[in-house]
Each structure stands twice: as structure tokens, then as C-alpha cells.
Amino acid sequence: MNIAHLSDLHFGVHDSEAAASLVADVAAAAPHLTVVTGDLTMRARPAEFRLARAFLDRLPSPVLVVTGNHDLPLDSPARLFRPYDRYRAAISAELDPVVHVPGLTAVGLQSMPRWRWKDGRVRRSQVTLVESTFAAAPPGDLRLVALHHPPFGRMLMNGRALLGAGADLLLAGHTHHPDVRPMNGTTVVVAGTSTSRRTRLTPSSWSRIATGDGVITVTERHFTGGGWQTARLLTVPA
């Protein structure tokens, strides 16, 4: 099973060269599922969402997408009364999407409440959605959760409850730095900054996740200006 994991696109302040070449690099991995864990835009402006939509349409399908903290408008009236309208109109009407492919059951979660500006929260009803979806999944399916905020420290309220919901893989973004951590029986994979110019510690990157033979292999692909290259390969027990 191959999964492509992208995050922090930040269209509006994106690296146009990285964005232009990323689709081909992802497609070469032949993913069974492409996951984008939020921050599609920089300031949730309509023009930025249009750029993000055009980019998503070029990625290998199926594509699972969730919101990030930058995908909610900063202006108070829209954030208070219609925080997800622009995302719903341009990207997806479903904020907690469920995707099934042979051998894989995946749940995406909207982890950015309107009343928090940076860090996130998972509601009890979302944890229940994950539990019920996995309970109904075919035996042997890889169980995956995707959201913007990783369950580290204070970045995600109720993160511990989510880690107990039965996921084999939890994919996140937000930190702008790729990471892989086994946590409570779940392998947490954080993607770096895929196309944004707002990189930290590492250049633009995305993660290829391969599962099989009892292991999970994460290959981090970095953009160097001359193209995409493998920078790090990590293997953890499944």
C-alpha cells in the first residue's frame, strides 16, 4: 500500500517551481491514496483557494483533504459566522471525509475550530466517527486518520483520545517539519512544507508511506531547486 502525504501548501506564498514539479513526483510513486493535511492557502482568500483547487485536481486520485489553521479567514465576521464556507465552496463540502480503497479505510478530521487561532481540537463526536468507521472496516484493512494538527503537546486538544481510536497511521502537518513517531500503537507521520515558501529546518518536502511485510516505510522527498530527491528513509514496525 502506497500513500502520498502532502501538507502546508500555502498557495498565495507558494514556491511556484516546487508546485509545478510536485505532481509528477507524487504520480511517480503510484499512490493508492493521496492525503493533503491542511493549510492549502495562506489567508483563505478566494484566489488562493482557486489555486489550491487547480493543484488538487492534478494529483493522483483518490485524494483525501482536510482543513488547516490557515484555511479559515482571519477577518472576524467570516471567521465567526462562516468559517468554513470558502473551503466548502472550493475544496469539499465534507469536513470529515471518509475514503475507502481496497485494503485501506481512511478518515479525515477537521481539527481547526473557529475559536482557536493556531492549535487544534478534536471533538468527542469525531473520535466516535473514527471508532465506528474502523469497526465497520473490512478485516485486515489499514486504518488511517488524517488531520492538520499532530497529537504533540498542546497542539491538539483531545489528541490522546484520538490515539486510542484504533488507527494504524495518523497523518498530520502544521509543524512545517517532517517527523515520524510511534505513539500508543499508532505511527504518526508529519509531513513537512510541500509547496509553501514558509519552510522551517527543511526545504519543501512530502512523504511517501509504504506499508507491507509488517513494516511502515516513510520516504521523505525534498525539493532542492534541481528537482525532488530522497532525503531520508525511515522504517518502523507496523
Automatic annotation (TrEMBL):
The keyword Repressor does not apply. Keywords: Hydrolase, Iron, Metal-binding. The keyword Metal-binding applies. InterPro entries: Calcineurin-like_PHP, CNP_phosphodiesterase-III, Metallo-depent_PP-like. Pfam families: Metallophos. One of its GO terms (molecular function) is metal ion binding. Residues 1-178 form the Calcineurin-like phosphoesterase domain. Belongs to the cyclic nucleotide phosphodiesterase class-III family. This is Metallophosphoesterase. It comes from Actinoplanes cyaneus.
